[in-house]
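As the next step, I needed to go through one protein, both as residues and as discrete backbone shape codes, included below for the reader:
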Amino acid sequence: MATVVSMINMKGGVGKTTLTFNLAWYCAWKMRLRVLAIDLDPQANLSQYFMGAERYLRYIQNNQPTVVDIFNEPRSSIPVHDVPDFAGITLHLIASRLDLAWSLIDPKCKIGQILPQSLSAINHHYDLIIIDCAPTESLLTTAAYNSSRYVIVPVKPEFLAAIGLPLLVKSLKKYKEINRNQKLEIAGIIFNDHNKDMSPEEITSCRSVRNIAENYGWKVFESTVHRSRSFAAGSRERQPIFNTPRARTDVKYNFDKVAEEFLKAVKLR
């Protein structure tokens, strides 16, 4: 059975999607795990990273199936898209589209129950299912919680870095009060886009995040994802950081350390 991990932060702009993209590639390529990535954000950035902008546009224009179909037609087949263009790697994607936002206002759509039920039919095909969540509290968040064993929280060291964490605490507390039998835990906080030469403001923000994490007994990863333009360049080219031309060696090395720590945190190593 697959280990299901949701990538969540109630604050946007923390590099959550880029991190999800690179972790999925690392686990599939370097560790040879069978990986399914699910884009649960109506903005569909993860889908575009995996497919490329032009290919994704054609995919949507041709009305190819997305995660929206899971919610609108629960009994239909799961719309899994094969990501790599070569054999030997099991890396699949369930894409998203902007229409997903409409599912949130459909009173007939039981989003929270449909996603875990649908995944239960296919999770034996995978070792890891990683869900990229929208940075807001919604029925999609509940669907992710219901489907997941672990939550990973990406945080960017910057002004107001900790602002989304109290909202996440409130969200998880409310969820666990209602769903007492669901095993769900924070597997850790990952500092993303981390500047090696941090400003006093960044140092203060990191300290604030660590204080909140300590109060709730959350793990903070020892390894950090270093700041680099190569992450954005790689995403545009559908390439993980370790395959991105001109990416610095230290950036690749530090990402590998983060990925190894991620695997241990979610009990896959």
Q: What stands out?
A: The mean pLDDT is 90. The chain has one domain: 3-265. The chain has eleven helices and seven strands.
